[in-house]
Amino acid sequence: MKYSKQRKIECQRSLFESIFFVAAGSFVVLLLYFGCDKAISPEKEFSGEPQEQQAEESRENVDGSSYGKEIEEAVSILESEEQEQLQEAAISAAEGCADLYKDIKVLDTTFYQLGQRTKEQRRETVSRMGGLGYVSVSKGINMENYEEVEMFYSRYSDGEEAQVTICDIYGDGRFGCRTFLYRAGKLQVYYVEITWQEGGVPILSHTSVWDLEEIRLTEKGYFIYTNKIKISHGNLREHYRIKPLAEDCRALTEKYISGLSYIDYNLLTVDWNGSNVEDIIMDTMFGDIYHMHTGEYLKVHGGRVDAEIFEEIMTIYFPITIEQLRHCCGYDADSDTYECDLFSVRPYAPFGEVVDYTENEDGTLTLFVDGVWPDYDSDYAFTNQVVIQSYEDGTFCYLSNVVEQQEMEIPVIKK
Length: 415
Prior knowledge:
Strand content: 25-35%
Number of helices: 11
Shape: globular
Radius of gyration: 25 Å
Number of strands: 16
Number of domains: 3
């Protein structure tokens, strides 16, 4: 939020009055006064992909709704003419997809808040832009023309000046075009955002620029970049998957692995099967399993959840009995409820992706999962073999897990 000079004067006047009337608290008030300038300094606006529910925030590379540390926009290493060319290129890319946005819903004309696009709509846009020669990507969809990013990184590694633009199609259809630059020994991002008017008319939303500390392209195909400071709606380290992931692996990841945590419970961090399943059943996992089952986010009152829903869901997704659940999960007979801790958003969270699978003779499925931890520059932190039993009604059961350390130590979660 931006504040006027008059607002600053009022803030300081109020503090002086506090000093005059509350002598005993003068030390505290003086501290507030000296912090006043910082408190009212304007932050540079930056818009990224709209925030999703809190429970997914630590597992996906999505943008948040609260600002990080106060920032001042970097001085662009591009000439003004070059910046204008990138803005025009972004508009031109959007115009090439305008017919796909004729049905776009503008929910708020003041800030051009848009209705969400389906995955297939976003996939069509990514494909169209790829056919037009742009590097394009969207959440859960393979990147088009990723080879240009590889060429950029190769030139950067050789110390040559280079740039590449990645057009990210957000969930509501906006275009976030990040141009990665390496010039005169400096790494930088120039960002152009395009939004939409009714009828599929693209307009420039805003631009921004910030410095990078480093970039890295992993062997498996993750482009990980580190911002010099945490930008608004972002993290210190962010990433794109450059190389394509097989569509069946993407589908298996989305159904069975996405949404599971490596740091809130030990489902994926210890070896287990039906004989020791009680060791991995924790109250912190139920919110994620509930979301898998219902597609909704669990609402908990007083830190407890009704036994009926808890037992119904947990006995579907794990080889465990009601008696075992009541023994290991904080069941209270008087209220007929279970403990349920939903505090699950933490920084530096790894996520899993299915890279291969085997259909077993007994009808089960073994998923080979790589733990990706971009905050530590790793796309091969640890590996899992997760055995799944699927049912005709679309539900499934986690039967076992085997985990092996690779590039990173496996997180230790205390029950």
